[in-house]
Give the backbone structure.
Amino acid sequence: DTGVSQDPRHKITKRGQNVTFRCDPISEHNRLYWYRQTLGQGPEFLTYFQNEAQLEKSRLLSDRFSAERPKGSFSTLEIQRTEQGDSAMYLCASSSGGSDTQYFGPGTRLTVL
Amino acid sequence: DQQVKQNSPSLSVQEGRISILNCDYTNSMFDYFLWYKKYPAEGPTFLISISSIKDKNEDGRFTVFLNKSAKHLSLHIVPSQPGDSAVYFCAASDTSDYKLSFGAGTTVTVRA
């Protein structure tokens, strides 16, 4: 059994470019979460899916951010017109319906130049 | 508004001694609490959790205590080992919406 995987692990981009990250949750986990972590802080909730339905979005998720989970399995997080303030670690987590424990992937480190 | 607070940014402890990490929360709707451990450049790793119906949960060297009236929880690691050196995050959720609120973390250094 593999854990949560994320791709890429690192992304360096220029301001104004679009980036897309992928998350593959633990098999059969129906809930998938995206968080963002900046230096010296704990992870902050961005959005949450149950199966393919996006059930909640944080106010941190501006209009430049969009997330999808089209078949209820993997998810993508896209950031359009990146800004330097988007530089952070983007974390994905998943959990099963019968448990409240979330298991995290290794994260994608985004650097916007 | 930070709903979960870890007021000690760092903790240094000698190998073999007890490490005690503290966490306070403000949202009375939180009913599930977790501790995660994080190494640099990795995602958080789940350590231990506790439901609000309990006041203690133990798993090997790790014990979590919950004081609901004080809105306070703590993580005890005994005995501390060099591999325990990491950043520890306290997290809480209201199981009506499942999203986790995290503290800012405590960096633990275990000295040989």
